[in-house]
Specification:
binds magnesium ion, 12 helices, binds adenosine monophosphate
């Protein structure tokens, strides 16, 4: 998995979507089991301490596995502390505002985890590819996005952005598999095939945003996503690595809270005897 460095050019065409690092599937699944337990514990601490918001942004083409990733994460994340925010074609009210208006309403509060299924990045993707807004409008958005994310980071938010990178062949296989599976066919859309014709335009738009919007505090992760087990493994690992440094901070906060609560209970008991 590539963690994009600030300002580094990205060329998705040269990144193998089937790359699985040096790890075998068997090893990755073993590791994944341990990682899910650790993430689950850390997320519980994060929720209880109520200090840090966690924002996970998922972007990717149709069939790239955004929904599958969410299903995977929800297997071990605390449902009380986690919310999914999907972003579809904007409603008339949303369109009547600036592009970040609907996004800001969905950002996580302290202790909460929010997973964006698509995001503000659609406003420099589909909008750019299909000329929904003129270039002079969308071209200014990279900077607005960076400032917006910096605001969230300065407010204590951990931001993890994952681009699920699949190949064009893999997408075709997945679309056809959907057609042949009665349980999955509901997801079919003519739009998916139409968007495929703009594959290269999307690649260009992705290359551009990955480069422009990867500051140190909120870099993009390019996840080779042809193999679902590898996708789940690297995303879970990245979440673990982002949360682990906060463990002591959250435990300290919880210890202080516990002392306060115990003191209150003791005071109450003393007052009633
Ligand atoms: P899906 O994720 O398959 O449910 O599809 C959601 C659709 O909404 C995709 O085709 C997105 O490109 C589209 N969409 C999301 N955000 C925007 C936006 N800001 N402007 C236009 N289309 C959008
Ligand atoms: Mg779709």
């Amino acid at each position: 998995m590539l963690r994009v460095q600030p300002g580094d050019p990205v060329n998705l065409q040269n990144i193998n979507a089937s790359d699985c690092g040096n790890i075998s599937e068997v090893r990755a699944l073993e590791e994944l089991e341990k990682l899910t337990e650790r993430v689950s514990d850390l997320q519980e601490l994060m929720f209880a301490a109520g200090q840090t918001p966690l924002l996970i942004v998922l972007q990717g083409r149709d069939t790239s596995g955004k929904d599958g990733t969410i299903r995977h994460l929800l297997k071990f994340m605390n449902a009380q502390a986690t919310r999914i925010a999907p972003f579809k074609v904007p409603t008339p009210i949303e369109i009547g505002h600036d592009f970040l208006w609907r996004i800001h309403q969905q950002t996580p509060m302290k202790g909460e985890t929010v997973i964006f299924n698509r995001s503000h990045y659609e406003d420099v993707l589909v909008v750019r590819v299909h000329d929904i807004a003129p270039k002079e409008v969308w071209s200014k958005r990279y900077e607005h996005i960076n400032h917006f994310e910096q605001l969230l980071v300065d407010s204590g938010t951990i931001i993890l952005k994952f681009f699920l990178h699949i190949s064009k062949d893999e997408q075709e296989e997945r679309l056809i598999a959907r057609e042949n599976d009665p349980i999955k066919s509901w997801k079919l859309s003519v739009g998916d095939w139409k968007e495929r014709e703009f594959w290269d335009d999307y690649t260009k738009a992705y290359d551009h945003l990955l480069e422009k919007c990867s500051p140190e505090a909120a870099p993009w992760h390019v996840v080779p996503a042809n193999k679902k087990w590898y996708r789940n493994y690297v995303i879970t690992k990245a979440i673990y690595e982002a949360l682990a440094p906060f463990e002591e901070l959250w435990k300290t906060k919880l210890a202080i809270l516990s002392e306060q609560m115990k003191a209150e209970v003791a005071e109450y008991r003393n007052s009633t005897t």
